[in-house]
Design a protein that fits this description.
By secondary structure, the protein is an alpha/beta fold. 48% of the residues lie in helices and 8% in strands. The protein binds zinc ion.
């Protein structure tokens, strides 16, 4: 991609917080001259995250949701995402014109990744922080200095966390591991959560030689106990990548009958609906296209999952660890609005067994674009929480999300998160956005609605770190 140096961006790049760094950086002065920006131009004061008289950059941040970071350049990460998105738009099989279609969708995938607001805001953040052009090459020039070794990368992560006062991150393990994931995030700066829903795939039980639903449920509960004994702070559900959140009541006999049917080789005979996917019961992917074609097998799979899912929800409550539920649609073409509809969760929240287990639920990514419904749930149920992860990459969407969630509150239920999953800078960028957007929204409460400075200060502290410390047991 060619360089993109609009004067507005460079004016920001000379901004208040990073002006010294920018001017001091090699090439900084030349860049300013190139764009016709006066040397020493004053910082746009509005970039300072002030909520009334409170500077939010002085408040610690806990990031409630992020994924393993990659020791790679942003250009490599974005190329991988563009190829993945482009690939999903090519129907499977061999047919005339397939290669030409793949080239067309690949170009579309690149445009989607490159022109998204998350990319523009992110590159501008890197530009004003490091004094580089807001381009792929500019960004890569920063990261390339820090990925040569594990030690370099560890220092890089720490520098980003320190720069944006991110005290702790909640790292989501990539696998349903009962042990702490390998990471280069410095010790003491992270806690971890694990993946629960991989354990409700029939393949998980079949691989372990389990033959009855009672044994499967016991093995899952034991894995959850083990995870907690090893320090796990929560269990994530990826259900909405494959199916709806609706939970039917399945008794143990019906669940066992479903399992026996699923274990029989005939259950896989119909194959997945999409032949790019492995047979659903043996492998499975995060795509709904991997669910069985055969109606009987599909119904058995749902019954099997529902029985185990309820056991997982109850066990999480018993272990005093939250269920973390992916709920949002954006960017990734596999995500479906109907599967991410929060409405079926009402039945989960009022299920008497789950209520008795006192399970807490964290609906991550705010349920976007159904964040109004999620905001309503948060106001209704004391055990339902929400984070803004992923949407903190999009300040415009974040403004909408924070306004909506805070309009009903309580602020004790709302948390910052990033959903960072590539270059560590994303953690810092999302923290920066959260402070900037909160400053705007909280100032509105003070200046337009007459709330006290102490009220909005408490809201900021809750959202940026206090709630996450309580829910994920971070000291
Ligand atoms: Zn995530």
């Amino acid at each position: 991609m060619t360089s993109r140096l609009p004067p507005a961006t460079l004016a920001e790049a000379t901004g208040r917080a990073s002006r010294r760094r920018f001017i001091g950086a090699a090439g900084g002065a030349a860049l300013l001259a190139m764009a016709g920006v006066a040397r020493g131009a004053e910082a746009p004061a509005k970039l300072k995250p002030m909520a009334g008289s409170l500077d939010l950059s002085q408040i610690d941040v806990v990031d409630t949701h992020m994924h393993p970071l990659k020791r790679a350049l942003i250009s490599q990460s974005y190329a991988r995402q563009a190829a993945e998105f482009g690939g999903l738009a090519v129907p499977p099989g061999d047919y005339p014109g397939r290669d030409a279609l793949a080239a067309y969708t690949q170009a579309g995938g690149e445009r989607q990744v490159w022109t998204a607001p998350r990319r523009i805001g992110y590159f501008d953040y890197i530009a004003r922080t490091y004094g580089v052009p807001p381009t792929m090459a500019g960004f890569d020039s920063v990261t390339s200095k820090h990925i040569g070794s594990d030690a370099d990368f560890r220092r890089y992560i720490q520098s980003v966390l320190d720069r944006e006062r991110v005290s702790t991150v909640v790292l989501q393990a990539a696998e349903p591991t009962p042990a702490a994931p390998d990471t280069l995030i410095p010790a003491g700066r992270y806690v971890w959560t694990t993946l629960a829903t991989d354990m409700i795939k029939p393949a998980w039980a079949i691989e372990r030689g389990l033959t009855s639903i009672a044994d499967v449920a016991a093995a899952i509960e034991q894995a959850m106990e083990q995870a907690v004994a090893n320090g796990c702070r929560g269990f994530k559900s990826m259900l909405s990548y494959q199916r709806s959140q609706a939970l039917s009541q399945v008794d143990i006999r019906a669940a066992d009958a479903a399992f026996q049917l699923l274990r029989a080789p005939a259950a896989n005979a119909g194959g997945p609906r999409d032949d790019r996917s492995p047979p659903p019961l043996l492998g499975g992917t995060t795509s709904d296209a991997a669910r069985p074609r055969d109606a009987t097998a599909a119904a058995a799979l749902t019954a099997y999952e529902d029985f185990l899912l309820k056991r997982i929800y109850m066990k999480a409550g018993a272990l005093e660890r939250p269920m973390i539920i992916h709920l949002a649609v954006a960017l990734h073409p596999s995500l479906r609005v109907d599967y991410n509809d929060p409405r079926p969760l009402y039945a989960v929240f009022v299920d008497p067994d789950i209520q008795k287990a006192r399970t807490e639920f964290v609906l991550i990514h705010a349920g976007y674009p159904a964040h109004h419904i999620v905001g309503a749930f948060v106001s209704q149920f004391a055990n339902v929480f929400v984070d803004v992860s992923f949407f903190s990459k999009y300040p415009g969407a974040l403004l909408d999300v924070y306004r909506t969630l805070l309009s009903l509150g309580p602020s004790e239920k709302i948390m910052h998160g990033s959903d960072a999953n590539t270059v560590p800078e994303e953690i810092g960028y999302c923290a920066w956005n959260s402070r900037a957007v909160l400053a705007k929204v909280l100032s509105e409460y003070r200046d337009s609605f007459g709330w006290l400075q102490s009220d909005i200060a408490a809201m900021a502290e809750n959202i940026l770190h206090k709630n996450a410390r309580r829910i994920f047991n971070i000291v």
